[in-house]
Amino acid sequence: MAAARDLQARLTKPAGSLGALEELSVRLAGLAEVCPPPLPTPATVAVFAGDHGVHAQGVTPWPQEVTAQMVANFVAGGAVVNTFARQAGADVMVVDVGVAIPLHGGATLLDANVRRGTRDLSVGPALTRDEARAAVEVGVGVAAALVESGAKCLLTGDMGIANTTPAAALIAAFTGAGPAAATGRGAGIDDATLERKVEVVGRALALHRPDPADPLGVLAAVGGLEHAALTGFILGAAAHRVPVIIDGVIATSAALAAAAFAPDAVAAMVAGHRSAEPGATVALAHLGLEPLLDLGMRLGEGSGAALALPVVTAAVRVLHEVATFDSAGVSEK
Ligand SMILES: Cc1cc2ncn([C@H]3O[C@H](COP(=O)(O)O)[C@@H](O)[C@H]3O)c2cc1C
Ligand SMILES: O=C(O)c1cccnc1
Predict the structure, then answer these.
(1) Which residues in the chain come in under a pLDDT of 70?
(2) ipTM beyond 0.85?
(3) What's the CA-to-centroid distance between 145 and ligand 1, angstroms?
(4) How far is the CA of 158 from the centre of ligand 1 (A)?
(5) What pTM was estimated for this model as a whole?
(6) Would you list the DSSP string of 6-74?
């Protein structure tokens, strides 16, 4: 990090003129323990998909089968995340960690189904501790396999109708925020549904009283299979000292769980964007992360992470390519 700071000061630009990109390049040099750090390429968006028993509470207007249908769309390359990943030069990998409907495998679909959807977190634990652990380990394994095959940057993605409800519950559990501050409109709900969703999150928290010092217990009580897998994915990236670009509210809720397991994991996290979901801002503040982009997006899938990848690449590329005052013969002030 000291070497990266020193190099930034010698490049042909006023000190600090690249704003947040400079500190990002310094963090990534520290993570990789080398200056300049590797360019974040090749990169893969891992889209973890799962379904949710809490769907039964009417927290989203979308039918549960949209999860499986969107997985097919990801495999066919037709979703927003596929387009943004193509734009950024990233691969997309789809992991079924908990989809309710059996899926037919495609080239980029990994079947790691732990159970066909969670139980309803508002009436009992969403998962057993063993199921939550198994899902975390799916994410750890996916991160390890991607790094093994050469990935230099991992990006979080999610698909799961109703998954903003467990995300809100996780954010409330880990940050202490109230249900209303942590809960948003997800994939689009009216005022009456939002009121019910906040009530469902509040009821779940009162029922389970999740202990933030026991992240596996929190994931089991009020989480989701994709949230747990993303937690493991983020921890896996950090363990390999590979940067992981965090997407929206689902990913930031998983990032809180990862930080509860291992506070040092935050050093590997790059917040791709600020999701319009209010819980995302609560989670980012708790993690002490500033997002790279703020475009009012609220989609998930890994779309905001994919969009941020070229910004991360640019931050690192500066350390590789920009001339120094010395080498370019530019006068200093
Ligand atoms: C067509 C469609 C594509 C999506 N892609 C991501 N999401 C996002 O919206 C869902 C969460 O919102 P909620 O909790 O309100 O159901 C997740 O699947 C998330 O990935 C989508 C949602 C829909 C409907
Ligand atoms: O920010 C997200 O990840 C998000 C927001 C709305 C719906 N689904 C996901």
Answers:
(1) 105-108
(2) yes
(3) 27
(4) 9
(5) 0.98
(6) HHHHHBSS-TTTTTHHHHHHHHHHHHHTSSSPPP--SEEEEEEEE--GGGGG---SS-THHHHHHHHHH
Ligand in nearest proximity to the CA of 248: 2
Segment 259-302, tens digit of pLDDT: 999 999 999 999 999 999 999 999 999 999 999 999 999 999 99
- Looking at ligand 2, which atom is closest to the CA of residue 187? 7
Sequence letter at residue 235? L
Strands 153-159 and 109-111: what pairing?
unpaired
Hey, whose CA ends up nearest to atom 1 of ligand 2?
A: 248
Q: Which residues of 275-290 are buried (b: 16+ CB within 10 A; e: fewer)?
A: bbbbbbbbbbebbebe
Residue 17's closest CA among 6, 29, 8, 7? Answer: 8
Active site residue 301: yes
Q: How far is the CA of 170 from the centre of ligand 2 (A)?
A: 14
Indicate the angle between helix axes 164-175 and 215-222, nearest 10 degrees.
150
Q: How far apart are CA 213 and CA 90, in angstroms?
A: 35
Nearest-ligand number for the alpha carbon of 50: 1
Query: Tokens standing for 204?
Result: 């779940």
User: Which atom number of ligand 2 is nearest to the Cα of residue 252?
Assistant: 3
Which of 72, 257, 262, 229 is closest to 156 using CA atoms? 229
Alpha carbon distance 188, 330 (integer Å): 53
